[in-house]
Sequence to fold (254 residues):
Amino acid sequence: MENILKVCKIEKYYGSRSSLTKALDDLSFEVEKGEFVAIMGASGSGKTTLLNCISTIDKVTSGHIFLGELDITKLKGNELNKFRREELGFIFQDFNLLDTLTAYENIALALSIQNVNVKEIEKRVKKVALELDIKDILNKYPYQMSGGEKQRVASARAIITNPKLILADEPTGALDSKSSKMLLEKFNYLDAMGATILMVTHDAFTASYARRVIFIKDGKIFKEIRKGDNSRKEFFDKIIDVVTLLGGDLNDAL
Fold:
C-alpha cells in the first residue's frame, strides 16, 4: 500500500531556553492511503500537538512530515494556504460551522473558494449528503440541527474537496452515544470508500472503530495495535488492555 502520511523523527519544544517543555520526542510513524488511524493518550501526552503539527497549525522544532511526496514542514505563505485548502479536511469537536449559512452553504463553501462551478458543487454536495444521511437538513441552519447532524455536516465539509488526509480532533467529544455511534459508522463508510482519516480521541469506544490505534505517552509512541480480523468488541478490549498498561493515565485516556 502507498503511504500517504510519513512523520519522521519530529520534535516539538515549547517555552524559553530557561524553561523548555518537550511536547514531542523523536516521534515517527506512517499512515497508508485509505487507512483509519486513531491517536490516543492522556492529557499532556502530545497527541494534540502532533495533530497541530500535521495540520500545519503549529511548526515542528525538528524533523519532517510528508504528505505524499510533499514535505509540509517546509511550506510557507501562499503554498501553505493552498495546501491547507486543497489537501486537508478538518473535523473539530465543536463543529466550527458558520451560523449564518445553511448546511448546504457550509459544505459548498470550500468548493466555492476553489472556484468550482455551481452545477458541479450541487452534484458533489448532494452526493456527500446522501452518503452521510443529511440530505433532509441541507436547508437548515446550525441552530436548527442536533449535535450529531452538525458533526455530519462538518464531516461532509471536510471530505467535499476530496482531500488527501482528513484530520479529526475529538469528533465525538460533544455528542451523545447514539450520535457518536452513527458518526463513527459513517467514518467507517468513508474509510471503505478510500478516505484517509487520522483521529485524535480520549475515548476507547471511539478508537475501536479505527483500523489501528497509536498510543502516545510523554511525546513518544508507547504502543500501537491493529484491528486485523478482530471484531470491534475484541479490538475495544485490546485497547482497554493497553490503556490499563498506561497505569495512572487510565482515567484520562478513557
